[in-house]
Amino acid sequence: MTAIGQQTPRTLPRFVLRTFWMLHRAVYRSSGGRIGLSRPKAGAKFGMMRLTTLGRRSGEPRVAIVGYYEDGANLVTLAMNGWADAEPAWWLNLQAHPDTTVELKDGLRTVRGRTAEGEERERLWASFRDYPGWGGDIEALASRRSTETAVVVLEPRTTAATDPDVQLASDGRVAERRAAG
To answer: How many structural domains does the chain have?
Structure first.
């Protein structure tokens, strides 16, 4: 909550955010993936990753490009939907099907998504301030939402039980993808 006399930070109009997201995906596609993904740098910027989820109703692959930072081997992001009240579709899909893949600047990783809770959530939430770009006052922006903003942890999966065509390294990175027969 903001203090008396303080204004809640403004966010961009929804159509501007949606246009930016569409343009970002278009640049990624048109560059063949050379532009659009980046690694996080503490004190400078958050990274950008391409997250593929399965639609919770359709079962079809869905792709979103989201910001993240690294916490050891884990990738951490916010389910914020541009600070709108509704949960982002990728987060609803990930809750229904937590095993998925992400594409980072240095390649694919298989991960399992979950919500950070308790002390872990507080520690990870505080770390978002180290990666500028989420918003000048992240607490005030989050207070605009009627529910707590989920801190999403994407942990490496080291087993390819759900995808026999993928060989994984110990950190969850895709080491080899066999050709489909």
So the answer is: 1
